TrEMBL record:
PANTHER family: EXOSOME COMPLEX EXONUCLEASE RRP44, RIBONUCLEASE
Transmembrane annotation, as ranges: none
Gene Ontology molecular functions: 3'-5'-RNA exonuclease activity; endonuclease activity; RNA binding
Family per similarity comment: Belongs to the RNR ribonuclease family.
Biological processes, Gene Ontology terms: CUT catabolic process; nuclear mRNA surveillance of mRNA 3'-end processing; rRNA catabolic process; rRNA processing
Organism: Sodiomyces alkalinus (strain CBS 110278 / VKM F-3762 / F11) (Alkaliphilic filamentous fungus)
Known cofactor(s): Mg(2+)
Residue ranges with Basic and acidic residues bias: 350-371
PIN domain sequence ranges: 85-205
Protein name per its UniProtKB record: Chromosome disjunction protein 3
Keyword Amino-acid biosynthesis assigned: no
Protein localization: Cytoplasm; Nucleus, Nucleolus
SMART domains hit by this protein: PINc, RNB
Length: 984
């Protein structure tokens, strides 16, 4: 449907003309009244196949064909509506139960009103996107009806009527019109009922008073065949007024929004992102600009229902209540075990345990503070934005009743999330017996003042704990990885020739337009073993003047993925390819990623090339950028390339070119290091899989070769060159990547630890100073110590992020870790959307093709950057979680004694890193002996000493020996890696 909203001449269509009035405040604080005239039409179709009147008004596609109607002529019936029915939900039904609409086989033939769609977009953009996805599904039959532009369904807002009441009235008007319209325009005697779904009791009462079919979600689902299972997916509704009568509250009331905003503006309150300690669930923190160190939040009351990642407003407590961060491990599962989920509201059953645990922390003396003074503490007074999502976990067996396994009685149970930073979630289910021992997906609905835990509802079961399929899907859901199959609209964007596509043989073909023929160059790629999505290839050759020509050739993905297409939209949503141990979740369809775009050897491929003339000292004489056609001579693994370079008998031109690349890469790296680039570290391992079963059988530490560095240096070099070019051409909209300098306070703890334990100084005034002092952090008796320090320093850093150049001043462009003034991502467009955008901008910068409007819009580019920053981070976390899971699986039924290093010490345990497996483990004092041995903790010197039957002394950075084995918790059915201290 086009031209649904237009401004008209005063004398045109006067009878069908209506005005919409909007009031908004401008940046200057003035109130602006906007009047928009809307032409109300009578040709917007109902989209029911039963209708005999609307087909003549059906919208047409680009080819002029009528768009098929969506709503079935034989919609499903229920007990209440045996003749069939169409569903028309209001906004709160979709807000509360989107999972139900997405997954249930009962929700078909659904009419989504324009009013509801717009209201949902304003209330929740993620839910809006999910609903839009449903409207594009050919199977679900969701139809968007533009009721605000249909003459009979448009309504004016009455004087003193709220927007919400007006929208509810618009929904009821649409329900009534649909029923009347089908009665008049259909020849069928058994017309389907139009059923309004809502959880607003007042709206339902008004609908029924008007003779309409209206039901709550629970009433509707209760009449379906699979009602018992589906009712678990309906959020628990609280009757209006019941909550207000309660007098027993566990948490303080939130401040009003106006009070919070006034307080933040005045500096009396502070806004930031709430983070929970991974080692103490009763402690949180929030970083705010007004304080050098994070504000500490101690206890559930001060956290006041905030969940990890929420944007909150806090109030700083008086100085006499300021404390230091916890030195004790406090786990929710241990403290709140055997809670009664059915007797939760208004109860104080577990608070006494929590209070005692917290009091032990608060009472401890801080005279030997390693920080010098306590940190400021605060309390949450309001939540600006919830970070709620779907959560994966398992049902706590201790919260289920004995009778739950014998019948389908509804009961409250607790879900223990996989993420330890998320509190237990209370859900109501009839399936508790069936869900025990399974991975379960739930959604949080609310967290009221009288409930100790957040309340949610069941979404679906993922399968048995520890099965590969269930654990992999759980991991993907936990990190919000988009893993659904590519929709047909995306696959339709692929070249029609499929795998038979080739670079045109004739250079007169339009596909060669503006491309340089580089097929004669001796180009090769160097990648990990088994790499199929080859983004990059390189070449080097000597020039007559003694210099070298060096080229980095990148897959020309932008030739196949055009802006504003379905494939481009899907790639922008996914943001990046996600690499797990056993699979890859592609950003682009496999045909492109591993075939047509991949720079495979021996075949011609489109590329985007960066070509430099470099001196023997790796100084740039000139650089140019060109679209090209290349033919890679070979695809090497890092190991193969290293062997070939090191083999003196290999003297062919391709090998000599690789040696030239190696020589120049070392000089480029030295230039970076001299400028202050950091050489950081993180534990990296590779899980070895059995070839036939794909089961993990061993874990190997990744070996970094000179060829790894060769590729890395030239990719960095190309990214810097491209960043300069696109910023020069588009100073307001260039997609760049920055890495902010970390606050010096981020290194306070590590600096003090190195000084106290090793007598070493860590200088953090600049990246150069930090790099030099990290080089000096060595222990002659322990070669791994320097790596350990670099791993710990990495965790003090800020995260790198994509940004649009017009949103930052030039000094803020700097990439701290790389010591580069400007940087972008260009070299991996098959697997990163940011690189694809950089390709489009570079193509416009060199005049190859004009910039598409979608790539010019700064607002859209800012939104893209925001999304891909999240996707990039989630992909990293998902990859690490996959490795951790498979390391545990590789150890299943085995045990190994390995060297480990103490990274963190608490008063009742310590954290160790096992380099062999690249994993960290928590060893509690209670794991050393039973009963838990007596101990003393010296926080000033980072020493933990136990006495009795297991007397040991544990110090920071100490090398210890641990026994690593798989561990099955019989109570929860959850398998993990268990570490036991062997020595000392």
């Amino acid at each position: 449907m086009t031209s649904l909203k237009r401004t008209l001449e005063a004398d045109s269509f006067a009878s069908n003309l209506s005005s919409k009035v909007y009031v908004r405040s401008t940046r200057s604080g003035k109130v602006q009244k906007i009047v928009r005239e809307v032409y109300l039409r009578q040709d917007i179709p109902c989209s029911s196949k039963l209708c005999r009147q609307c087909p003549q008004n059906a919208p047409r596609d680009a080819a002029g064909n009528a768009v098929p109607f969506v709503l079935s002529d034989k919609p499903a019936g229920t007990k209440a509506f045996p003749q069939g029915h169409y569903i028309l939900p209001d906004t709160n039904a979709l807000l509360n139960a989107m999972d139900l609409f997405e997954q249930s086989s009962a929700f078909y033939d659904v009419i989504i009103l324009q009013t509801v769609l717009e209201e949902l977009r304003n209330r929740s953009l993620p839910l809006y996107n999910r609903l839009v996805g449903l409207t594009k599904s050919e199977d679900k039959r969701f139809y968007v009806f533009f009721n605000e532009f249909r003459l009979e369904t448009y309504i004016h807002r009455e004087p003193n009527e709220t927007v919400n009441d007006r929208n509810d009235r618009a929904v009821r008007r649409a329900v009534k019109w649909y029923g009347q319209h089908l009665a008049q325009s259909s020849k069928s005697k058994n017309l389907p009922a139009i059923v309004m779904l809502s959880d607003d009791r007042d709206c339902i009462a008004k609908a029924k008073a008007d003779g309409l079919h209206a039901m709550t979600l629970s009433e509707y689902v209760g009449g379906l065949e699979d009602s018992e299972r589906l009712l678990d997916m309906v959020p628990e509704a609280r009757e209006g007024g019941e909550f207000d009568k309660r007098t027993s509250f566990l948490y303080p009331e939130y401040y009003t929004l106006s009070r919070m905003m006034t307080g933040v503006k005045a500096g009396l309150l502070h806004q930031g992102i709430f983070n929970v300690s991974p080692y103490n669930y009763l402690e949180g923190s929030i970083k705010v600009p007004a304080f050098v160190k994070p504000l500490v939040l101690l206890g559930r009351e001060n956290m006041n229902r905030a969940i990890n990642g929420d944007v909150v407003v806090v109030e700083v407590l008086p100085k006499d209540q300021w404390k230091e961060p916890s030195t004790k491990i406090i786990e929710e599962e241990a403290i709140t075990q055997n809670e009664n989920a059915d007797n939760e509201e208004g109860s104080d059953l577990v608070s006494e345990k929590e209070r005692k645990a917290l009091q032990e922390e608060v009472k401890k003396t801080h005279s030997k503070s390693t920080e010098g003074r306590p940190q400021p503490t605060a309390k949450v007074v309001g939540v600006i934005k919830r970070n709620w999502r779907q959560y994966v976990g398992h049902i706590d067996p201790s919260s289920t009743s004995q009778s739950s396994t014998q019948g389908r009685r509804q009961e409250n149970v607790f879900l223990i999330p996989m993420d330890k930073c998320i509190p237990k979630i209370r859900i109501r289910t009839r399936q508790s017996g069936e869900l025990l021992g399974k991975r379960v997906l739930v959604t949080i609905d609310a967290w009221e003042r009288d409930s100790r835990h957040p309340v949610g509802h069941f979404v679906r079961s993922l399968g048995e704990l520890e099965t590969k399929a269930a654990e992999t899907e759980a991991l993907l859901l936990e990190y919000d990885v988009q893993y659904r199959p590519f929709p047909r609209t995306v696959l339709d964007c692929l070249p029609k020739e499929g795998h038979d596509w080739k670079v045109p043989a004739s250079m007169d073909d339009p596909g060669w337009r503006g491309r340089e023929d580089l097929r004669s160059l001796l180009i090769c790629s160097i990648d990990p073993v088994g790499c199929q999505d080859i983004d990059d290839a390189l070449h080097a050759r000597p020039l007559p003047n003694g210099n070298f020509e060096v080229g980095v050739h990148i897959a020309d993905v932008s030739n196949f993925v055009k802006p504003a297409t379905a494939m481009d939209t899907e790639a922008s949503i996914r943001g990046t390819t996600v690499y797990l141990v056993d699979k890859r979740i592609d950003m682009l369809p496999m045909l492109l990623g591993t075939d047509l775009c991949s720079l495979k050897p021996y075949v011609e491929r489109y590329a985007f090339s960066v070509i430099w003339e470099l001196t023997p000292e790796a100084d740039v004489v000139n650089a140019r950028f060109t679209k090209s056609v290349i033919k890679s001579r070979e695809a090497f693994s890092y190991e193969q390339a290293q062997l070939r370079i090191d083999d003196a008998s290999q003297q062919d031109d391709l090998t000599q070119g690789m040696r030239t690349l190696m020589m120049l890469s070392k000089k480029l790296k030295q230039k970076r290091l001299d400028a202050g680039a950091l050489s950081l570290s993180s534990p990296e391992v590779r899980v070895q899989m059995e070839s036939e079963t794909s089961d993990p059988i061993d874990v190997k530490t990744k070996q970094m070769l000179d060829t790894n560095s060769l590729v890395e240096e030239f990719m960095l070099f190309a990214n810097v060159s491209v960043a300069r070019k696109i910023y020069e051409a588009f100073p307001q909209t260039a997609i760049l990547r920055r890495h902010a300098a970390p606050p010096k306070t981020n290194f306070d703890e590590l600096t003090n630890q190195l000084k106290v334990k090793k007598g070493l100084e860590l200088h953090v005034d600049s990246s150069k100073a930090l790099a030099d002092s990290l080089d000096a952090c060595v222990d002659p008796s322990d070669t791994f110590f320097n790596t350990l320090v670099r791993i710990m320093a990495t965790r003090c850093m800020m995260s790198a992020e994509y940004f649009c150049s017009g949103t930052q001043s030039y000094p803020e462009f700097r990439h701290y870790g790389l010591a580069s003034e400007i940087y972008t991502h260009f070299t991996s467009p098959i697997r990163r959307y940011a690189d694809l955008q950089a390709h489009r901008q570079l193509a416009a910068a060199i005049g190859y093709e004009p910039m598409h409007p979608a790539v010019r819009s700064r607002g859209r580019l800012e939104a893209i950057c925001k999304n891909i920053n999240v996707r990039h981070r989630n992909a990293q976390l998902a990859g690490r979680a996959s490795i951790a899971y498979y390391v545990g699986q590789a150890l299943r039924g085995k045990e190994a004694e390995e060297e480990a290093f103490v990274m963190k010490i608490f008063s009742n345990g310590f954290v160790v890193l096992v380099p062999r497996f690249g994993i960290e483990g928590l060893i509690r004092l209670r794991d050393l002996a039973t009963p838990e041995p007596e101990s003393t903790f010296d926080p000033e010197n980072y020493v933990l000493t136990t006495s009795g039957s297991r007397a040991v002394t544990i110090e920071l950075f100490q090398k210890v020996r641990v026994r690593v084995q798989d561990d099955m918790d019989e109570k929860t059915g959850k398998r993990g890696v268990k570490m036991e201290l062997v020595k000392p």
